[in-house]
Design brief:
Blueprint lengths: L1 H33 L11 E3 L14 E7 L5 E3 L5 E2 L9
Antiparallel strand pairs: 1-2, 2-3, 3-4
Length: 93
Amino acid sequence: MLGGLALAAGAVGAAGTFMRKKKQMGKKERRAKDNPASVWARPGMTVTFRAELMPGRDREHRTASVKKLLPSGRVLLHEIEGEHGQGEFDPIQ
């Protein structure tokens, strides 16, 4: 009987910890959506593709301006077709 009680107490404690963690993670996601400063690109901003993705091209030929930021965090560019993610570009300096 004592073993069953200990097992039940452990399960309740683990469930409480899981619920607390889940609640905290939800706050972080909401905070990122509400805070426009966390967005890595904005319309009109210039971004430069990493040299590994466009070998043999100078920096000015790898640079484009952001047309639209999509809800997924990817961007549409004025000069280059398709959706592009943050990892495709040089870090902002």
